[in-house]
Amino acid sequence: MEAITIKDIARICGVGVSTVSRAINDHPDINEKTKSLIMKTIKEYNYVPNNSARNLKRSESNTIAVLIKGITNSFFNSMLKVFENEIQKKKYSFLLHRVEEHEDELDVALQLEKEKRLKGIVFLGGYFSHSKDKLKQMKVPFVLSTGGISEIIDKKSCSYVMVDDVKESYRMVDYLCKLGHKKIAIITTPPSEESIGKLRLEGYKQALKTNNIPVDENRIRYVEDDTFDTFSMKYGYEVAKELLESDTDFTAIFAISDSMAVGACKAIFEKGKRIPEDYSIAGYDGMDITFYYQPSITTMRQPAPEMAEETIRILFELIEGSSEREGKIFSADLVVGESTQAIR
Amino acid sequence: MEAITIKDIARICGVGVSTVSRAINDHPDINEKTKSLIMKTIKEYNYVPNNSARNLKRSESNTIAVLIKGITNSFFNSMLKVFENEIQKKKYSFLLHRVEEHEDELDVALQLEKEKRLKGIVFLGGYFSHSKDKLKQMKVPFVLSTGGISEIIDKKSCSYVMVDDVKESYRMVDYLCKLGHKKIAIITTPPSEESIGKLRLEGYKQALKTNNIPVDENRIRYVEDDTFDTFSMKYGYEVAKELLESDTDFTAIFAISDSMAVGACKAIFEKGKRIPEDYSIAGYDGMDITFYYQPSITTMRQPAPEMAEETIRILFELIEGSSEREGKIFSADLVVGESTQAIR
DNA sequence: TTGTACGCGTTATCAT
DNA sequence: ATGATAACGCGTACAA
Question: How many Cα atoms within 13 Å fall on the side-chain side of residue A61?
């Protein structure tokens, strides 16, 4: 039982292939009667056009792809929803493509561009560091959204929407300092990992410096290397536990992601300590859980929906011919929850 | 600047296209020297083969697709990780495809099957209810994984891995009853929605019946219709709030998802009530947050990794020629947390 | 070991 | 309004 093709349909209906093609693609130049006959046989025989052939022949599509690196988290989910809506609104179709951890997102993009004749690409998350040379190969407009851009890359070479991780991280730690905390621990991703963890750690260090607090390496705690989902609750929990069992003294923890913060909270509760009376906890990202956790967790809320909208706006500007590269840096909101309080 | 093709590479290298093709696809019959020359030029000119053309020409690939309906949640994420590993282990490649809420997953599968010459498909989640007729069109092996199968579908017509939502939901509610709870509220998805919410509600009703507790419609609370992510914390929170503000009496809440349970907890805390002293809360799914929440939440843990492994095992059995349809129903674990206690 | 030529399923151009 | 036919970029049987 071979797969049925456009030719079969044409033969069955006693028409030419081009007529069938016209029927499928809603071309104007076709008799209503023949069209409905064709559509009927298509249904009857369960004919499904082969997309590969279509893409091969078509010179362009109206597809926007969103490439997302690694595991989708709830933060990305809220952006995806916006992408989907906005793209649909513009009568484009939306293709979500996940790129595996070990793959090169740019290679994937290049391939997808050819395969699907994309109109535009959004790179969501990931720590985007690629050579300018390779970046030049990208012929379709693209926007980097969320997630730090490596300093290796000249920001001038592409469009982006992001928050300044160093600055916002600084703000959070500075806030903790202003509450009187002097012994602030940080839970972050492994130093080996090229990720926003680095940037957020940098902000932490700068904030301590501004507040004349020496950096104590013992208070910088890294998630173990080579683990899977370094931003997860699990590792926040484990690292915080270690921290509590060590003889390192601290009054506050800044976890570089909300998930880690949740894990840290649990570790503290298990020790019979209270939040924020015994320890203040701060997270980062602005995920829903910070509101629903008990106590609610102080966090830096990244304005995900606004960033997503801006991403699409810029992308379409690019698509519609603007040659202007455009970058926008959003500010995060410091959302004060019940998990932090002034010292004493 | 036109896209570069295999012909260009052939011309540049002064060889035939087939030689280039052989180089790309690691064919044995090729001189090492010509091969390395070709690979060098490919790099140099940044040639990227067009996948559409390849798929069109190829009669088969070694790709397994995982179709996931709607938004990825952390429950699916843990399964995806397993899928990815197992599929890689078998030297197949892994394609994750998200199908939009409004799309028909089967249509998408049919299309993808043709486009990518798939070897197998996993349908992850979603409430799978399709006519047998349509199911017959699927020529590649497929397995339904997680998520209830509609009773409309004869379970005999396809392979699946799932938990018995009615039964497990029953167990949870029965557990609450045995703790002495007689006024148990449930938070579930809208009745209009074809989802596992229905099955879990059914289990709830059966458990009450067994325990000689009449069903009080006031204690059945539905998430508002036409909302986006009905399983989310947000709606658990809102519905629980409504419930608390109504004059409906209850001592326990069974939320049909852990996320909803978390939201419900927050609503209770905001009213100044305690968990489990004032209200017992139970969730369903076994998501990480139930462990990290304070208090930890009683839940029915679905054995995600094991289910994922079994899914792949069955799929490959099918691929390797077994014509035996195979279904496996996993039992969930009742994980007792701090959020439930005996009445009085 | 290498090159030529055909066909995969579709759309677009050009006749009719 | 409709049909024949030439591409699209690639893999491969076959010939060399």
Answer: 22
CATH value of B6-56 in 1.10.10.10, 1.10.260.40, 3.30.420.40, 1.10.3860.10:
1.10.260.40
- Of chain A residues 272-311, which have a CB less than 8 A from chain B? 288-289, 291-294
The reported pLDDT for the residue numbered B144 is 92
pLDDT in tens, A149-167: 666 566 678 899 999 999 9
Question: Into which CATH architecture does domain B166-302 fall?
Answer: 3-Layer(aba) Sandwich (3.40)
Residues A289, B71: C-beta atoms closer than 8 Å: no
Q: Which residues of chain A have pLDDT under 50?
A: none
pTM, entire model:
0.91
Q: Which CATH class is domain B60-163+303-330?
A: alpha beta
Q: Is the pLDDT of residue B151 over 70?
A: no
CB burial of residue A12 (10 Å; 0-12, 13-18, 19+): middle
Contact B235, B224 (CB under 8 A): yes
Q: How far is the CA of A117 from the C1' of C15 (A)?
A: 30
Q: Which two tokens stand for residue A132?
A: 């300018």
pLDDT, one tens digit per residue, over B11-49 is: 999 999 999 999 999 988 899 999 999 999 999 999 999
- Return contacts of B215-219, CB within 8 angstroms, 24+ apart: B216/B183, B216/B248, B218/B246, B218/B248, B219/B183, B219/B184, B219/B185, B219/B186, B219/B248, B219/B250
Report pLDDT digits (tens) over B125-148.
Answer: 877 777 777 888 898 999 999 866
What is the nearest CA distance from A211 to chain B, expressed in angstroms? Answer: 33
- Whole-angstrom distance, CA of residue B289 vs CA of residue A297: 14
